[in-house]
Design brief:
The two termini are about 40 Å apart. By secondary structure, the protein is α/β, with parallel strands linked by helices. The strands form 4 sheets. Strands 2-5-8-1-9 form a 5-stranded parallel beta sheet. Strands 3-4 form a two-stranded antiparallel sheet. It has a two-stranded antiparallel ribbon with strand order 6-7. Helix 3 crosses helix 12. The relative contact order is 0.17. Helices cover about 45% and strands about 15% of the residues. It contains 14 helices and 11 strands.
């Protein structure tokens, strides 16, 4: 954990050959293998502080490397905040945290302009969105007005304040946590905002052995300061570009489209997956393939990420329920034929 992975030389290779023109499979394999090395180092770092949740951590790394954002729905006290802090520390990025409350204002997120009497000018003071990794904790306790303040940041990586557009740091990664909808004092996120999260995940309670490790100091927040970065923000930007260069055959793209189409006609789903959701599934599948060291997307990659990438994007006729939506995605996966060959 004490050594940063050198990814910049590979970055030149990807930028020059993989982003705008086809490359031979051997040329694609090298960046994918390096993304797999980075992913392994990230997971090792995260597992130091968050014990016994390898599958959930894998989804968190997929969200980070796919260039999207992460939504964590769970009860309090299961390491949601710790996950965001550990991700920021692992990539050497800046970190800011916002607590969602009913009195949170949009300017509390974006920042404000303050008049300076000495100069007679207005000075912009950036809000907490101006960081590489931003945690909005209990986002569904904030009002819709405050929730809307992060929409531009998530999609455009910028904020507009007092008529001026200001770019956010690059890379920018937002982690939002929400309490289950049945908890008191929550405001469901609008469909447009949910559609901008790459992955939804649950950390869940730790198993007894992992919880004992935390109690005995072999995990948990006490070890956070001991985490060394495994890359820097330049390395993360390169890794995201390498993930987007992972090859996808037309048959696999058709498979993603067929899955999305099936959600649009399912009798229990009021609003199915959007085209943005289909793109999100593919990007997440590319990240999963690269984390496995492969330079191409397989149908199994799509199946691995389908529920985490789609469940929060579906509107059920029975009302919001991410767990029920994930189960419906599984039924769709069982019904849509998998491409062969």
């Amino acid at each position: 954990m004490g050594k940063l992975l050198d990814l910049k030389g590979a970055g030149k290779h990807v930028e020059s050959e993989g982003m705008t023109s086809p490359v031979r499979s051997g040329e694609r394999a090298r960046p994918a293998a390096q993304v797999a090395d980075l992913g392994g180092a990230l997971l090792a770092n995260l597992s130091t502080v968050i014990r016994g949740k390898a599958d959930a951590l894998h989804l968190g790394v997929i969200a980070l490397l796919s260039g999207g954002h992460l939504l964590v729905e769970d009860v309090p006290g299961v390491a949601k905040t710790l996950l965001a802090k550990a991700l920021a520390q692992s990539v050497g990025g800046s970190f800011r945290r916002v607590q969602g409350t009913p009195d949170l204002l949009p300017s509390d997120l974006t920042g404000v302009s303050v008049y300076q009497p000495a100069s007679g000018a207005w000075e912009f003071r950036p809000g907490p969105l101006f960081a590489n990794v931003v945690l909005v904790d209990e986002v569904n306790r904030a009002t819709p007005r405050a929730q809307a303040a992060v929409l531009e940041a998530m999609e455009e990586h910028q904020v507009s304040v007092d008529g001026a557009t200001r770019p956010l740091p690059d890379p920018f990664f937002l982690v939002a946590t929400q309490n289950p909808f049945e908890h008191a004092g929550t405001f469901p996120l609008p469909d447009g905002q949910l559609d901008r999260f790459a992955i939804v995940m649950h950390l869940g309670y730790a198993d007894p052995a992992s919880e004992r490790d935390v109690l005995l100091g072999r995990g948990g927040a006490d070890l956070l300061d001991q985490l060394d970065p495994v890359t820097d923000t330049d390395g993360l930007r390169w890794a995201r570009a390498a993930v987007r260069a992972v090859h996808c055959e037309p048959a696999v793209a058709d498979y993603v489209v067929e899955l999305a189409t099936a959600t649009r006609t399912h009798p229990e789903i009021a609003i199915g997956a959007s085209t943005r959701a289909s793109v999100g599934v593919l990007h997440a599948a590319q990240a999963n393939a690269a984390l496995r060291g492969r330079s191409f997307v397989s149908p199994d990659d799509v199946k691995t990420v389908a529920a985490p990438a789609l469940a929060h994007r579906l509107s059920l006729r029975g009302g919001p329920d991410i767990k029920a939506a994930a189960a419906l995605v599984q039924t769709v996966l069982d019904q849509v034929p998998v491409p062969r060959g």
